[in-house]
Each structure stands twice: as C-alpha cells, then as structure tokens.
C-alpha cells in the first residue's frame, strides 16, 4: 500500500529513479548479451559445414565436448524453433541465424523482458529499403545495392553469383518483374545472400 505521508513529488522521484535503474541494468544486460551472441555466432561459424549458414547436426552436438556452449537441444525442439534444415534427411543441419535468434538464446532480465540476439538482417534490410526508397524494386536495382552492402561475415563490394542472381529473377518472375522486399521469397533470397545473418523463413512465415 502507498504511504500517503510521502509528498507527491517524492513518490514521482522514486518512480523515475526506479525506471532509470531498470534502464541502466537493461543496457548492461544488452552489452553482455551482445558479447554472448557474437561468441555464439563465431562458434557456429567455425563449425559451419559445406552448405553456407548450416552446421551438421552431428557436428553441432559434438562441439559441446570442447566448447563452453552446450548444444543439447533435441531435433524436435530445433524443428519447432525453425532452426532445423531437413532438406537432406540423412544429414539434418542446424540453420545458424535461426538458431542464434531463437527464443532459447534470449537473456531473461528479471523475468520482466527478454533480451534476444540482434537480428543483423534487419539492419541490412533497412539500408536496402532506404537506398531503394521503396518496398518493391526490380532485381537489377536490388542486386546492384546488395553487391555493395557488407555484413559481419560478407565483404563488399562483391560479385553476386550467377545462381544468386538467377534466384532473384525467379522471385521477380512470380510478381510481374518486381521483387517485394517483405515477401517470404525475398527473405529466403536474403538468407542465401547473407547465410550467417539472415534467418531462413519457413513456409508458414
């Protein structure tokens, strides 16, 4: 119950002070969490398989033997997270950006809110849309900008591969020659362009 003997200004000050402390703690958690996220990404990148942005499930589990990361999630759980690639049923793989940004890797600050790993792909999508000035563009316009857009794991400028350019044309072909940046097919394309930063969107997404 509120102590009515405390002047109104003091109560207001208490609330502001509490909010400032919570904000400060949140920022410290966020800095710590970003270091953890960077370390997690680097660990998974070091064991990346032949397919970009993927770690074979067997390698994923074996890494726990010589790393401080404990990768113990069962395939069913990874599938539910959208972090399991079963394109080749004999060699299931963990999709690195999907796993890194999964809820299980969020840091819970006082059970009030969760601080999750930053979606680095959103930064690049923001820059792309800003340079295009539109949420829809031609494959040529998009390719020209993406070729100049670096990420933490991709250097720029770069020459986009023929298969990457071909996939972009396929996305445009389903939409009268234009590519909607916020559509699932373009999100898939961004995953292939930036396999460590951009999560792979699944059918229901």
Secondary structure layout:
Layout (H helix, E strand, L loop, with lengths): L7 H39 L7 E3 H6 L12 H7 L2 E2 L7 E3 H5 L6 E3 L3 E3 L4 H13 L3 E2 L1 H8 L15 H12 L5 E2 L3 H10 L12
Antiparallel strand pairs: 1-3, 2-3, 4-5, 6-7
Features:
3-stranded antiparallel beta sheet, two-stranded antiparallel ribbon, 205 residues
Termini separation: 46 Å
Parts with pLDDT < 50 across at least 5 consecutive residues: none
Principal-axis shape: globular
Radius of gyration: 21 Å
Helical content (DSSP H or I, runs of 4+): 40-55%
Largest sheet: 3 strands, antiparallel
**Helix-and-strand structural type:** mainly alpha
Helix-strand sequence = HEHHEEHEEHEHHEH
- Counting DSSP H or I runs of 4 or more residues, the number of helices is 8
Strand order, sheet with most strands: 1-3-2
- Percentage of β-strand residues: 5-15%
Q: Mean pLDDT, rounded to whole units? A: 85
Count of DSSP strands: 7
């Amino acid at each position: 119950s509120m102590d009515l003997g405390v002047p109104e200004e003091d109560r207001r000050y208490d609330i502001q002070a509490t909010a400032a402390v919570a904000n400060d703690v949140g920022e410290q958690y966020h800095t710590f969490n970003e270091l953890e996220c960077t370390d997690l990404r680097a660990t998974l990148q070091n064991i990346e398989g032949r397919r970009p942005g993927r770690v074979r499930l067997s390698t994923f589990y074996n890494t726990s033997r010589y790393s401080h990361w404990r990768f113990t999630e069962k395939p069913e759980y990874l599938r539910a997270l959208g972090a399991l690639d079963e394109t080749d049923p004999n060699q299931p793989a963990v999709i690195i950006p999907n796993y890194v940004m999964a809820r299980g890797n969020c840091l819970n600050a006082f059970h009030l809110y969760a601080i999750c790993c930053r979606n680095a792909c959103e930064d690049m999508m923001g820059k792309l849309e800003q340079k295009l000035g539109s949420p829809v563009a031609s494959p040529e316009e998009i390719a020209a900008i993406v070729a100049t857009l670096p990420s933490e794991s991709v250097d720029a400028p770069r020459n986009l591969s023929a298969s990457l350019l071909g996939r972009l044309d396929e996305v445009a072909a389903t939409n009268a020659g234009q590519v909607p940046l916020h559509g699932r097919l373009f999100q898939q394309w961004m995953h292939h362009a930036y396999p460590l930063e951009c999560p792979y969107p699944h059918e229901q997404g």
